[in-house]
């Protein structure tokens, strides 16, 4: 981009956009944290952007003046129930930049469609970069990634493929799912050939990493002090076989030659969320400082008391092509300003469980 004397001064919006991008890619953004006022200011600007460029969201916000959003009023940001992304995907589109429709997995009628433009995708990848760099402490240039998933171009814009690829963007990566099947032999051979002095990430959904652990049970891999296993997503079609995290940790550590349970990490994301929350070595899911998560009473949507469980609501200033203010279908907690032994201070997210059908009937999240 060239700058000349005749070029008009950037609008306030463009200034704010670049300020947010600079923050997302700042060194040690997770560790430095930020004043809550900084997060509130970016969220206020994001609300203003979506109210100005998304008529349906503006109607939904019902006369809310974005200028009234500050550090004390974040809970007034109008939240889109995640079901809207299934039923009325047209209504969530902000602006007119070209987008890809990223999708959740699911059967017809239950698939969420989230429009992402380039700026939104780049910011998502910036969130992954910040988390992997600071919480896994791996330098991008030298890391090898074994992605137990398909390439994005083979996955019909399935969002989990973007999420798993996000971890791979700047790394040497190989993909081990072709035509829906894991190439276990090729994966095991590649893992066995890893250089123990080079960081190695094994990334995949929990059921596929569980299968890998079992495939290696009788011939575990040699110890690798710099290998991590990162789980992304849930058990989906294999929910009936889901195992507790401790059992998964106990299976993965010996089979992959990991240095301990701290080397197994879960990364939380959902298709409507443009940021990941990655676990540190202490299995705390750290919210990056730009993301405001709160737990809400499912009937009134009022914030619950600190430490109580509620429906999780996410306010994410990073997406430009859809409002990143989403009421999820997950129950959980947010612990505020936790000084974690890993060195990060900030909000820690704990996901408890999915809302059940009965609860969803009595729930205020329907619009
Ligand atoms: Zn931590």
UniProtKB/TrEMBL annotation:
InterPro entries, A to Z: ANL_N_sf, LuxE
Pfam families noted in UniProt: LuxE
Domain Acyl-protein synthetase LuxE: 37-365
Protein name per its UniProtKB record: Acyl-protein synthetase LuxE domain-containing protein
Organism of derivation: Cellulomonas septica
Organism phylogeny: Bacteria, Bacillati, Actinomycetota, Actinomycetes, Micrococcales
């Amino acid at each position: 981009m060239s700058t000349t004397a005749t070029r008009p001064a950037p609008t306030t919006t463009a200034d704010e956009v670049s300020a947010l991008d600079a923050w997302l890619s700042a060194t040690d953004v997770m560790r430095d944290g930020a004043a809550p006022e900084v997060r509130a200011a970016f969220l206020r600007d994001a609300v203003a952007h979506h109210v100005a460029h998304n008529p349906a969201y503006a109607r939904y916000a019902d006369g809310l003046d974005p200028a009234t959003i500050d550090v004390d009023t974040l809970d007034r940001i109008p939240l889109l129930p995640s079901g809207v992304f299934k039923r009325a995907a047209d209504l969530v589109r902000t602006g007119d930049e070209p987008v890809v429709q990223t999708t959740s997995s699911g059967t017809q009628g239950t698939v969420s469609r989230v429009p992402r433009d380039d700026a939104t995708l780049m910011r998502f990848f910036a969130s992954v970069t910040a988390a992997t760099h600071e919480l896994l402490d791996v330098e991008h240039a030298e890391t090898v990634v074994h992605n137990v998933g398909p390439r994005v171009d083979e996955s019909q814009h399935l969002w989990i493929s973007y999420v798993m690829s996000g971890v791979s963007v700047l790394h040497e990566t190989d993909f081990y799912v072709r035509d829906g099947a894991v190439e276990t032999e090729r994966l095991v051979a590649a893992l066995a050939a890893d250089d123990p002095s080079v960081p190695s990430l094994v990334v995949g959904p929990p059921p596929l990493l569980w299968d890998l652990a079992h495939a290696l049970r009788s011939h575990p891999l040699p110890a690798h002090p710099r290998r991590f296993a990162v789980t992304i997503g849930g058990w989906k079609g294999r929910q009936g076989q889901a195992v507790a995290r401790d059992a998964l940790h106990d299976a993965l550590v010996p089979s992959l030659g990991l240095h301990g349970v701290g080397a197994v990490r879960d990364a939380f994301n959902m298709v409507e969320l443009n940021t990941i929350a990655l676990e540190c070595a202490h299995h705390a899911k750290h919210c990056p400082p730009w993301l405001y998560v709160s737990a809400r009473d499912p009937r009134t949507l009022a914030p619950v008391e600190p430490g109580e469980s509620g429906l999780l609501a996410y306010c994410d200033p990073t997406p430009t092509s859809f409002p990143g203010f989403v009421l999820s279908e997950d129950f959980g907690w947010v612990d505020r300003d936790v000084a974690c032994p890993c060195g990060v201070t900030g909000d820690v997210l704990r996901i408890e469980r999915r809302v059940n059908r009965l609860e969803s009937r009595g729930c205020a999240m329907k619009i």
